[in-house]
Amino acid sequence: MNKQFIFLLLATLLLFSCKKEEEKTYLSKDDFTRMLFDIHLADGILTTKNIVSRGKEYKPSFYYNSIYKKYNITPSQFDSCVAFYTQNSALYEKIYEKVIDSLNRMETQYRMALKDSLVVRDTVNLWKGKRKIFLARGRHEDLSFSIPVTEAGIYTVRAKIKRFKDDQTKKPFLKAYFWREDSTQQEQRINFDSIAINRSEEFVRYETQLEYSDTLYKELRGHIIAWENVDSNFTQRIQLRDIMIFNPQIKRDSLGLDSIVRMQRFNKGELDRYEDIDRPKRFRDIEKLDEK
């Protein structure tokens, strides 16, 4: 009986001492890792020119204090955490490996997003419909497209889509293909990969792309959303935005300087007809789609 009591007492003291040791850290290993990530991110923000050039508004304490507030910790308590974790060099090294890995991943994502935004900004959107669409209450809009193609390069069909839980669309998917008729007037296609559209609480970016390598195919066709419902007696709840169809080779400045000058002259009334403006055939073909 005495041995059991002593064992229970020792176990209680050990548990209490572990709890005390844990309390000294103020932050768990995961929270400490996240806080180090936030601090290094703030360091990076504060070293950029656009922050430093703000003069009197440049207040590093604002950024760091917001981090302390986020984790409900004081600067001295954070210093205690650093002291605690540095006592175990192997653990501290693993923590910093996670921090560096997270920073590298964020930098990679930022570079990809920046590159993508520059490409989108500098290219022509071949989709001429509404860029924001809400399919709901039995509205089953035709989101098909048929675009003349002549320019080499990779064509991308893209949209951000949120499909609600109560949506009754059967197996919705994004679909695209290059199309032509052969000498016997039979359809031939080169299909892009079809992308299934899943239910989600947030917008998800869906895209499919394929290189235009066979000039015998004259059109890019498909559906931003296709489905397998037999009849139209079903409720859709799908929201779309940022719909784009583009080829980076077709840029906004493809009209050339001469055409820009002519456009300015047209606006000033120096040209009699819009057709007098020199425009590549692919742009004239695109404009014809708007008239349909």
What descriptors fit this protein?
four-stranded antiparallel sheet; 3 domains; 22% strand; Jelly Rolls; alpha+beta
Write the layout of secondary structure elements.
Blueprint: H1 2-25, H2 29-46, H3 49-52, H4 60-70, H5 75-86, H6 89-121, E1 133-136, E2 144-148, E3 153-163, E4 173-181, E5 187-191, E6 195-196, E7 204-212, E8 219-226, E9 237-246, H7 256-267, H8 281-291
Antiparallel strand pairs: 1-9, 2-8, 3-7, 3-9, 4-5, 4-6, 4-8
Helix pairs in contact: 2-4, 2-6
How is this structure best described in words?
Strands 2, 4, 5, 6 and 8 form a five-stranded antiparallel sheet that branches. This protein has a four-stranded antiparallel sheet with strand order 1-9-3-7, with no helix packed on it. The protein has helices at 2-25, 29-46, 49-52, 60-70, 75-86, 89-121, 256-267, 281-291, and strands at residues 133-136, 144-148, 153-163, 173-181, 187-191, 195-196, 204-212, 219-226, 237-246. Helix content is 43%, strand content 22%. By secondary structure, the chain is α+β, with helices and mostly antiparallel strands. It contains eight helices and nine strands. Mean pLDDT is 76; it is low at 1-23 and 255-292. It has three domains: 2-121, no CATH class; 133-250, Jelly Rolls (Sandwich); 255-287, no CATH class.
